[in-house]
Amino acid sequence: MEPIMNTLDQPPGSLAGATQIFQQYAPKFRRPDGQSLREAARAKGRRAQEIDDELERIASQRTSRAGTWEDAPPSELIAHILERFHQRHRQQLPELIRLARKVEQVHGEHPASPRGLADSLDSLRQELENHMQAEEQVLFPLMARGEGTSARTLILVMRMEDRHHGEALERLNELTGGLTLPPAACNTWRALYLGLAALCVDLMEHVYLEDKVLFQTATPIQKTEASHG
Question: Strands 2-3 and 180-181, how do they pair?
């Protein structure tokens, strides 16, 4: 069996905030005996260099931005989250659901088949869509106007939902055996797991920027915890 995830060459410490999120929300994705996504990509043959170059580009962009958002105005970070993550998730999940249904239909009898993955992804899509709409329609406009302190209860709800998203990633990890491909996996199966790897990193960075940076400007964690402790 061929593990294809620890995202790049390491637990993803070079991706802004991703190490903390991996540890907090999805520790099972760190498979010490596994093969990294980069190593798996390099083993794929002709397109390996293309995949490797794209991973390097993404990692370079994120590394160059690391630490910059803490000093940015909330409106700039909100614009980044909307463009980089909300739009991206809306593109990723329908395609991943389509691929998962195809893999389950064609390879349903295979011992490594991720049975139930498509339904789990669809549940995540619905939950994430509701979460993003609440942010876009109510929370983010308040925060962009500097009125985030009036939305403390909604921010608490968003933080709770972000924890649920982490639990959903753990479920995806369980269904896919840690994103482990069988030796003769078809191109659809490979595309599915590569797409899931990207979704996991994107969603965890998304959660980090909201919970640890954006929401912290309106409701510092220590104050929130003290008021509910």
Answer: antiparallel
Could you tell me which of 92, 3, 82 has the C-alpha nearest to residue 39? 3
Count how many domains the chain has. 1
Which domain does 125 fall in, by range?
2-228
Q: What is the DSSP string of the chain?
A: -EE--SSSSSSSTTSTTHHHHHHHH-GGG--TTSPPHHHHHHTT-TTHHHHHHHHHHHHHHHHHHTTTGGGS-HHHHHHHHIIIIIHHHHHHHHHHHHHHHHHHHHSTTSTT--TTHHHHHHHHHHHHHHHHHHIIIIIHHHHHTT-GGGGHHHHHHHHHHHHHHHHHHHHHHHHTTTTEEPTT--HHHHHHHHHHHHHHHHHHHHHHIIIIIIHHHHS-HHHHHHHH-
pTM of the model: 0.70
Regarding predicted confidence, which is higher, 49 or 28?
Answer: 49
Of 66-70, 71-75, 166-170, 192-196, the range with the lowest mean pLDDT is 66-70
Percentage of residues of the chain with pLDDT beyond 90: 38
How far apart are alpha carbons 77 and 67 in whole angstroms? Answer: 12
Tens digits of residue pLDDT in 91-138: 999 999 999 999 999 999 999 999 999 999 999 999 999 999 999 999
